[in-house]
Design goal:
Elements (H helix, E strand, L loop, with lengths): L17 E4 L8 H11 L3 E6 L4 H10 L4 E5 L5 H14 L5 E4 L21 H29 L2 E6 L2 H4 L7 H21 L4 E8 L9 H8 L9 H11 L11 E4 L9 H5 L1
Parallel strand pairs: 1-2, 1-4, 2-3, 4-5, 5-6, 6-7
């Protein structure tokens, strides 16, 4: 049986809820895997991307019998985040779940390889921080009033083991931004828990997506589990955190990396 097998019956525990999932444009990415899981559990999902391919993802969800809306915009701009949440508030009147998945991969969207800190430009530093941290802050800030007013909410930030628990050389902006996701998670959790809103984060390791190159897939095969993870496996953990039953899980960072961050002496296993 496949892990989190989508052919199995799914509990409709999110019936009537409304979820925003950012960074959902890729058909085989973590964002769309999360959106699909939430939709199958009964939520109306509002999915976002920076390109019009989001309309294809909405069409896929609707064709499968789910309720979905699409939004195009760059969430680095705080006014775009306000418009996204405003769309939900005006058209639907509630927001129960926010999954901040928007960002860019390690080494960035435009980088050709590792960049030493003294070669990193101001523009590249700002781009890495904005794409991977500021976008999550912007959307969270816009969403919090709706959740606080209702007395219920689930916010999950997608971080990474890179920066949050581990690091590699040549990508200080990405690592710094993802480390910031941990601080954002904990500080928001303390502030919002008294209002019935939980905030947590998921830190994936080597996950096989359309953007994975050969070196990244090989790194996944070198984990203790012996393979890269899948977007669906990450979505399963996000799905647990946004469930009504997870009301007492608050301010946590859950690592999904096949045990890769556990191993202190890799030379022993290699021998």
């Amino acid at each position: 049986m496949a892990i989190h097998d989508l052919s199995l019956p799914v509990a409709r525990d999110l019936e009537g809820q409304v979820a925003i999932v950012t960074g959902s444009g890729s058909p085989v990415g973590i964002g769309f895997a999360v959106a699909t899981d939430l939709a199958r559990r009964g939520a109306l999902v509002v999915i976002g991307s920076t390109t019009d391919r989001i309309h294809d993802r909405v069409a896929e969800l609707v064709a499968d019998g789910h309720e979905a809306l699409g939004f195009i915009g760059d969430l680095v701009d705080p006014q775009v985040s306000v418009r996204l949440v405003g769309l939900v508030g005006d058209r639907i009147g509630r927001l129960d779940i926010l999954v901040n998945n928007a960002g860019m991969t390690a080494l960035g969207e435009e980088a050709t390889g590792p960049v030493a800190i003294d070669d990193l430009t101001d523009a590249a530093w700002r781009r890495g921080i904005d794409r991977n941290l500021t976008s999550a802050f912007n959307t969270s800030r816009a969403a919090v009033p709706l959740m606080r007013a209702s007395g219920y909410g689930r916010i999950v930030h997608l971080g990474s083991v890179s920066g949050m628990t581990m690091a590699f050389t040549g990508d200080v902006a990405y690592h710094s931004a993802k480390a910031g996701i941990g601080g954002l998670t904990r500080s928001m959790a303390l502030e919002l828990a008294p209002h019935g809103v939980t905030v947590n984060a998921v830190a994936p390791g080597w996950i096989a997506t359309a953007g994975s190159d050969a070196a990244e897939l090989a790194a996944g095969e070198a984990t203790p589990v012996g393979r890269p993870g899948t977007p669906t496996e990450v979505a399963a953990v996000v799905g647990m955190l946004v469930s009504p039953a997870a009301a007492y899980v608050c301010g946590q960072v859950i690592v999904v990396d096949g045990g890769n961050s556990l191993e202190e002496n890799r030379a022993l296993r290699a021998s």
